[in-house]
User: What shape does this take?
Amino acid sequence: MTLTAREARKQREAEQRRKAIIKIVRKLIRKGGMGEISLRKVAEMAGYSTTVVYSLFDDKAMLITQAMDEDLLELTRILGEAAQSQSEPLARIRTVARAYVDFGLSHPDEYEFVFMQRRPHASTDQARVEHGNPGEDPYAFARALFLDLAQTGAVSSRQDDLELMTQIFWEGLHGLTSRHLVMGHDDAWFPETPMDRHIELMLDVLLTGVLTHFKPRT
Assistant: This one.
């Protein structure tokens, strides 16, 4: 269906408002966390009525979910570029893992916003990132890596096993990344080890565990 000029203009205006509101949300979260967010406060800072905000976002959960979209898409893009440098599935997983940690450490605000704050959760259809699309959804991208590994016969291809492999592996990477973001590199209570060696050994442990525990089922 072709839009009239008036309808097209209204859509453009709505998208401009949406982007302005999202920008305010991201600013507030970086300043004081999720507790700073309310639709009324966001509306005041953006210079819109609450009616305008509610016309674009159903609730706070949807507002925060769409504010994360930009960072999720960027993370997926970076992981995708890393994956293209390797043709062998296991090597691809290792390369993507290093890219994930690099992203977190070089984008601390974005990483903390998406992965290190408690937040209300909106339904997947309220996000602009397409849920389950490996080209947009970083979890789906990571799961596809283990599916590729399974197709070589190295690990199980059962759905529940693929989900566990993906989540256990992601949890290991997140633990390392978040620990460095929170504690820094000079915490006397947590002796520092060379990062490159630390990542490589962690990947050895995680992948050895995955290959041992999730053997193909007969």
Q: What stands out?
A: The chain has a mean pLDDT of 90. The chain has two domains: 1-57, 69-213. The longest helix spans residues 5-32.
